[in-house]
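explain this chain.
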Amino acid sequence: MKKSLGPKTLVYPTPVLVVCTYDNEGNPNAMTAAWGGICCSSPPCVAISLRKATYTHGNLMSKKAFTINIPSEKYVREADYFGMVSGKNEDKFAKTGLTPVKSDILDAPYISEFPVNLECKIIQVIELGLHTQFIGEVMDAKIDDTIQEKGEPIIEQIKPLIFALDSRNYYGIGKQIGQAYSLGNEIGKEVNS
């Protein structure tokens, strides 16, 4: 038996993404967002949705560029802090001791210490209601040398954070349970036997 909860955004899990921008004075800013993810593979694009009231929203509208930074479990405190205070009032990089690095290809910083960084130019802005969705084409993806093998990321070494909206808790990833585009073949074999 299922219980109706009404319209809710219950997508599990949601990623913990740290969106970095520059303001009009060239100051780096970071904001944690869970409303985001992959939205196109060719060209490679990601989408983030932010409330208009955020400082980052204004930076995105002005600069038309952002980075998505994937924090590892090691930086859960910093990622949480980035979502708690406004860059309008705080220098979040000074407070956390993390390092903003200016992108060589667009007008946005990325976080040196975070293992994965996506450099994105905004190609579409969609007003949705309380949130504005920014679609960014990924112009470059950076990953630490220590967490890749043959140019491919190793998720167990990245140790990305995930977020549960209902409980407002952060989690790490679990163990691998199977290979995609392989496990389903077992069903076809069962049916044909």
